[in-house]
Each structure stands twice: as C-alpha cells, then as structure tokens.
Specification:
By secondary structure, the protein is α+β, with helices and mostly antiparallel strands. The chain is 46% helix and 12% strand. α4 runs antiparallel to α9 (224-249) and α4 packs parallel to α10.
C-alpha cells in the first residue's frame, strides 16, 4: 500500500479522518473501494459515533494490505491503540489522538455485505455499493440465538450455589452482571434488528419500557442478601420473556436444564424459586 499524505500535527476531527481515508484510498492502487458503515454509513450517528470503514482490495493483495494497514493508518494519524478485534479476521479497532475511534475491516469484492441504506460509498469507482440490496430484509427473532441465551442464563444461575458454598460474594456479583447482560441481549433480540447495532446505542433500539426495566434492576453490593435477591429478580424478568419469545420464534426450550437448575438452587442454596421456574423446584 502507498502511504497516505499526513494531515499535519493537530488532532483530526472525525470528518477530517473520513476525508483523509477517502483521499488516501483514491491514491492507492491496492484500494478498490472504501466504504463507510455503522451509524454514519446509515446516515445517522451523532457526535459520539465512531468511523466504521470497509476497505476493499483484490484477493491477491488482501494479505499484504492487512499486514500494512496499521502503517497506512498511522501515516494519517498514529494510533494510540491498535488492535485486531477477532483474530484472524481482518477487523481492526483503533483509537487516534483526540480519542477519535476508527474500526476498519479489510475485505474483497464479492464479500462486501450490507445494504445501500446502511453503507455509504466514499471511494467506489466500481459501484460496489450500487450492487447491494436497497435495504436489509425484515427478520424475526433468531430461535438459535434465543435458545443459546436461555441455556447460558440457566447455566449461570446454576452456578450460584458454588459461590454461596465457597462464600465468594465478590464473584457472585460478577455473576449478576452476566445475568444482566443476557437479559439485555434477550431484549435486543426481541426487537429483531435487521443489522448489528452499535455497542453504545442501546436506547436507540430498545423501547423506553425496556430501558426503564434495565435501569431499575439492581446491581448489588457484595452482600449475600442483595446478591440473592438480584439473582431472583433477574430470573423473574428473564425467564417469562424468554419463554414467550421462544414460543413465538419456535426456539427449543431446555426443560431438563431448567428443572435441574431449580433443583440445584433448592438443594444446595436453600432457594425456592418455584414462582420463577416452570413446574417449581
């Protein structure tokens, strides 16, 4: 890859960065297209949104472009953080001076995904964006994802007696945060977003009542009375919603696992959650 022209010593604005990436792509023969995804690519976003860039190169140049990408970005603005998010997948996360956030993916023609209402062409002489569908199709909640969330929730709940038996309240608080995350993921999946949502844009997706629910649920101190009550409340909110969503989507329900979790809590922690679990403990 050719090094892009630098933008001087002052921190870039987000728009400066987008323009610099565009200009660098136009000059570089390894770049077939540069696209903007995320909330900015969809025509939304706000002052807090990051830059989600998609760099398209030829298959025979892909490995070299991935290898040179950090230097290529550094010539625009040296990152204070550079990380490959999911090795070995070519998705990189960077933080630039001024806390300007950049996520950049390297792909090849034929593997450009998305829809025209979600991706904006910055440099695209071959018209790759125009070849995309106009919009993501509407989808229903994913039964496999729902089943996985339910299984993981019951697995974590079933570990509570271990923390109680070992008198590990600090670790048990971590377990509550896991349950909270699973409930949040369930609420998101119930909305069936057509495209992956940003990690920091929850209030744009969930109904106000779901946001209010998450705000009201407790995050306990490392005190057993608070921890046990928090576990019960998260289960009381998660399981009925999960059952309804599983029935709606056709997801399988882990009846045996649920029954064993109820028995485990009753036997090893003295917790009767019969009003929460189907069929009682």
């Amino acid at each position: 890859m050719l090094p892009p022209a630098t933008c001087g010593g002052t921190p870039l604005t987000r728009e400066d960065l987008i323009q610099a990436l565009d200009a660098a792509s136009e000059r570089d023969p390894d770049v077939i297209a540069l696209l903007l995804g995320g909330s900015l690519g969809a025509g939304g976003g706000d002052r807090w949104s990051d830059v989600d860039a998609i760099l398209v190169t030829a298959p025979d140049r892909h490995a070299a472009v991935v290898n040179d990408l950090q230097a290529w970005v550094s010539a625009i603005a040296p990152p204070v953080l550079w990380r490959q998010t999911f090795p070995p997948h070519p998705l990189f996360m960077a933080v630039l001076p001024g806390w300007l956030r950049l996520d950049i993916t390297v792909t090849v023609p034929g593997h450009v995904t998305g829809a025209r209402d979600r991706v904006r062409a910055l440099y695209d002489p071959q018209g790759l964006v125009e070849a995309l569908p106009g919009a993501y199709p509407r989808r229903r909640p994913d039964p496999r994802k729902i089943a996985g969330l339910v299984e993981e929730f019951l697995r974590v709940v079933g570990l509570l007696p271990v923390a109680v038996g070992r008198d590990e309240p600090v670790l048990a608080v971590t377990g509550v945060t896991l349950l909270r995350g699973l409930l949040q993921d369930l609420l998101v999946e119930a909305q069936a977003p057509p495209a992956p949502m940003g990690a920091l844009s929850l209030s744009r997706l969930l109904p106000a009542e779901d946001v209010a629910l998450l705000a009201a649920l407790p995050l306990p101190r490392a005190e057993w009375s608070e921890i046990l009550e928090a576990n019960r409340r998260y289960a009381a909110e998660f399981l009925p919603r999960a059952r309804a969503l599983a029935a709606e989507s056709g997801a399988s329900w882990p009846t045996a696992l649920e029954a064993e979790a109820a028995k485990r809590l009753a036997r090893d922690a003295g917790l009767d959650w019969s009003e929460v679990f189907r069929g009682g403990a």
